[in-house]
What we know:
disordered C terminus, 13 helices, 265 residues
Amino acid sequence: MAQTSAIVGELKRQLRSHGLTYQDVADTLDLSEASVKRLFSEKQFSLKRLDQICALMGMEISDVVRKLSPELEVEQLSLEQEQELVSDVRLLLVAVCAMNRWQFQEIHQVYDVSETDLIGYLAKLDRMGVLELLPGNRFKLLLSHDFAWQPGGPIQRFFEAEVQQDFLKCRFNQPGELRLFVSGMLSAQSNELVQQKLKRLALEFRHCHEEDLALPLEHRFGVSLLMAMRPWEIESFDSFRRSEARKDYPAFARSRYKAAPRAEK
């Protein structure tokens, strides 16, 4: 019962951090707000309902459970730390390898980094709190499962300047490659729905990554997934749009449109 209480308590904290209320949960579960409050009070959740609430936040049940573990604490580096990473490409390379759970000898064997330099880079990452350097050149990653780069920070700017164009310079027609581009007219409600599904896909990608860590390095390949979605119109089209025909996307689309029921087919 103690573990159940801890999970429900963490679920409440996550709802608050996502700016969601009991009424939001009630809309998702098709229940009254009073019924939802009773569920939380009595701590009586079916796995299906627990999964629905997690999906509302773009999470999995396992993500909520992981939040209960005190081991992984670093959720974000400072701007100065990110700048230190991008100022030395080899340091950034070692950091990315460590984040992907490579071992010392794997990094040394695959990349032209001497053992002495590699130890130095790992020591820097230890001082930054990214990992803990252990005897025998082993190390333990200290990043939270929710770790994220600073929005608009040095790493994201590095990605935009150095990685993004190179990543897209591809026909995406070889094995393991796929590019999908779709466009259409969506309501704010549908936009929110698709974004939630994309977040769940990103979680599935992360879970596959974690499961595959048990495989030897030769059976794992660096894979990147780029997902983007925004209300947008080609500039050449937008230049012809009449000023009176311009419209602003609603700032609180979800709260405005969540009450509108979707017609069943």
